[in-house]
Amino acid sequence: MPHPEPADPAETPATPATPATPATTDTPPAEAVAPLMRGVAVLHRLTEANGMLSLSGLERATGLARSTVDRIVATLARMGYVRLDGRDAILTPRVMELGNAYLAALRLPELLSAHADRLADELDESVSLAVADRDGIRFIHQATRRRAMSLSFRIGDLLPAERTAPGPLFATEWTEEEWQAWRERRTRDPRNTAYPTIPPPPNTTHATVGHDGVDEDGDEDEDEDGDFIRRTERAANENYALDDQLIEPGLVAVSVPVRDPRTARIACVANVVSHTSRHTAAHLRATLLPRLRTAVAAMEETLRQAPPPHPGPPPAGLATWTGASKQELGREFIESLARGLTVLTAFGEGRAELTLTDAAKATGLSRATTRRALITYEHLGLVTPAAHRTFTLTPQVLSLGFPPLSRTTLPRIATPHMTTLTAEIEETTSLATLTDAGDEIQYTAQATASHVMSVHITVGTRQPAASTSMGRALLTPSPYTLMDEELEQGVRTIAVPIHDRTGRVIAALNAAAHVARRTPEQCVDEILPALRSTAAHIETDLHTASRFTHVPLT
Ligand code: PHB
Known about the structure:
554 residues, alpha+beta, Arc Repressor Mutant, subunit A, Beta-Lactamase, 6-stranded antiparallel sheet, 17 helices, 40% helix, 19% strand, globular, disordered N terminus, binds P-hydroxybenzoic acid
């Protein structure tokens, strides 16, 4: 199929991937889809900016013309990956379906995260799982502790191998070319400026801290690269590695590889992360390493016994959807970007390795379109060829929006939807959950209507569950609940439940109106349908976000 996008003379070429996603600075192959590369660049920049950038900020960060940025953002908004708030583009939970496709195809989070969570509970320390990503490591699971000082990285964060404990374990399997790529990166960027999530290396002797958590010779000139090579040799002999404050003062970790039972190669690395106020690195090794090893043995047993994956349904109705969007938005909708991004979602559980034909079938796209998207992704490092003419996703797919959203909460997911609802019905809307005791509700988010008689309730306020519409929606699984003049005379509220992925009611959404503004019948006729569809939007986002991350309710 010929290139579907009209050439825009104002468009500069897609900028090379950023340092943190240094897939390539090579010239793209002739068949690469330029609008898809630019769309991916926009997602990368938004991710690095923690999920939000103004349109002019995006223009600067990508080097693209403003008209191009506008069209890309309009297309991403149409896909539900981005929303516009004034002049800001903000990543939405829906974009996590890209990372979800990688994590589902990988299967390791599904099979191993319960082990990691149990170990974190047992040790009362953070536990994480990381995979190799070129000469770095990328996190695929985090079981974090709720402490005042949060130590851990986010799912999808990339760290340079030499600054971590898992790094030397993965490096035991590096080929000569991979060592060469690492050396070149070290020469190009000795202070790791390409990794925005970590501070630059300290100027002190930390780089020379030895495997025992003890300075070997205190020699400040001892080079970090030699240190990494020695740590890799030890990791090969001892099948574990330590991070003694390589990332920042106080942060320590001990790591053990989880091996694929069929190949004996490292599938991922399990880490216990702590702080020197609780454990020195030597203490971590003495006390927690044995328990980490036991947990890893159980993880490997789970991999050995894993049943074959269950392929879920492929993305449906895509061709119709992109066609309709093009009809509706015209030039603002970049169809080749929308189609190309969908190719990533063709992958998933039971669909880790797809041929061109498989990917075309799963998406409903033509072979030519699918092929060009795969060529583009291979160039960008998001897809890699595998056995028998198949392709697989790489961990770099997690750099498309996942880290900033991996720590979202239900109130943050709900708020933009509630703002839209309030604007539509002109009534205050609130979100609440049940307290632990179960007899009270607690307000967790609110969008306040701006008219004089609007209802205001402070977030955090508690009310008896039994006498509120939201409490009733949370306590009784009856489909919908209307309460008249609850708590306060003159306020009429109507509430609907919010369900988690398993169908459990975990929150309620309500609208509150002054009795003078609407009759009970008007509430049902005018508000309930909008309330229901907003609840459905919140649930869709929640279910996408919580597939591989824990989404707190407050
Ligand atoms: C983490 O999970 O946050 C972590 C793991 C290993 C490290 C450092 C941090 O070396």
